[in-house]
Design a protein that fits this description.
- Chain B: This is CU044_5270 family protein.
- Chain B: It comes from Lentzea miocenica.
- The complex is a heterodimer of chains A (197) and B (357).
- Chain A has 197 residues and is mainly α.
- In chain A, helix 1 runs antiparallel to helix 2.
- Chain A is elongated.
- Chain B has one domain.
- In chain B, strand 10 and strand 11 form a beta hairpin.
- In chain B, helix 4 packs antiparallel against helix 8, helix 6 crosses helix 7 and helix 6 packs across helix 8.
- Chain B is globular and about 65 Å long.
- The termini of chain B are far apart.
- In chain B, 42% of the residues are buried.
- About 10% of the residues of chain B have low confidence.
- Classes of the chains: A mainly alpha (197), B alpha+beta (357).
- The interface between A and B is large, with 99 and 90 residues.
Chain lengths: 197, 357
Amino acid sequence: MRSDVAPVALTIEDEAPGVLDEAALLTLYESTAERLHRYVARRVGTDTAQDVVSEAFLVLWDQRQGQAYEADAVRAWLYGVATNLLRGHVRAEERKLRAWSKEYAARTDEADIGDRVSAAADADVLAGPLTAWLAELRVEEREVLLLNAWADFSPTEIAVALDVPVATVRTRLHRGRARLRTSLAATDHDFTEDSHV
Amino acid sequence: MSEPTKPETLDRVLDAALSRAGDEPVQFDVAAGKVALAAALKTRAEVAEPIAVGAEHRPRRRTRWLAAAAAVTVLAGAGLAASTVDLTGVGSNPASAAEELIKAADLASRVVDRPVGPGQYRYVRSHYTGITGEWGSDKAWTTDSATEEWIPADRRDEWMLRNRIYSVKWVDGHEGEGDPEAGTAFKDGEEFRAKCGMYSYFAEGYPDRCTVGSFHNPTPEFIASLPKDPAALLAKLREEGHAEDAGAFMSALEALRSGQFPAEVRANIFRALAQLPGLVVTDKRANLDGKEGVALGKRYYDDFTEIIIDPDNGDFIGTREVIAEDQSGDKGTLEKGTVRSSSAVTSVIVNSIGARP
């Protein structure tokens, strides 16, 4: 699932836990910043994303320099910080998602896709409206859903990153998905059903 | 007339569409960013007081983050159910949910709360049981875990959080390799202590729990600011839940789950919920952690989200998620009444940090 965002192992993962010094922070930036930026940009656009990513790394430095760190831990921490920072940009995020949806609709030729009958074709048609529906979700549901779908975080990781009980993460994830599924089902799109399974 | 789309088809399309949604090529210059970051660090080292000195004043904390690889979510399929609820006839009398809530509110408002005295702690234990599965695979496991938290009378003092994992087991016929991932972030018995409950694993930017109140984190100031009038309180719950009834119900649920509201305010929350449309009695004898109560549920897509209240004294027992309607999927038939997850909440006053009732 979510094949386009397959987890990327951090290159420092196999090394012994080190101390977060300047060199380590810069190495960490090299291995994670682009991916974090892509995730944040997908939510708020690239300009705001630059600021959010820079700020997240500086916050990491201010809080954790000189301390031992683990690569996975730091990754979760950075995404948690970014998520908290993004709460200050909710309007921008919703604008970005709706704008993307419109722009996508304008450049997607349904007739072209319509000849292909596959789940991929379904997704091509529905990615536009889906992005606009993301803007309608409660922000708590959206951030959990997108950390899961776009950043490949498990509910457990999300619970730690956001300090929310894992039960609440699951509820929000389940609700967010249920809501989007219902919106999908309500379209007049003719879904390609599974031929077997 | 075409057949209704299968849930598994919708899930598959949803995943595929989500992976495209909002995506576009973005330019990111890692090398330039790295130079800028190095420059910013240099400026900080020169301008700010040496951060290393500041760090000495902060307690050194070693944060443990457990990361899991698989993307998982809650599912429930045939044969997975730990327990089921008979939902026959549910919703036929919507008035009864409001009646139960008013009754519980009357009982709760008669409770005289003992305040948490100086040096004492509010002990809140949340006992979670649930089934977790992995999207796109047949793996599923049950988790039985709890969190215990000790909140000091003065929130600025030290809090403690302890995580317990009682069992994590594969569901028969849904085994994967090795051991299943515990449905919680921490190791059994892992403990955190911090003033204001700002534990070391929190992400930076998390609102200060001593000063930023919410239904989820009720500071005394937040509790005092809540309207007494049930309609006004419902409006506040809606506001926090983004103006929706389902959101309002979630806000109430988070408030009750916190275990930190005085009986009088809990009574007001019940009265506010009595005015919420769509709430029905889903189970008259719901058993959670050995306590029996009446379950009041609100339908949200596939599920009823329930709060369970002790009809004898208006106590809040916990919450559940129950499948509202028979479903079918490639993981088997999802039966109406299947309990997806439950969370039982205990909240009492204890005399010392780490003490249990």
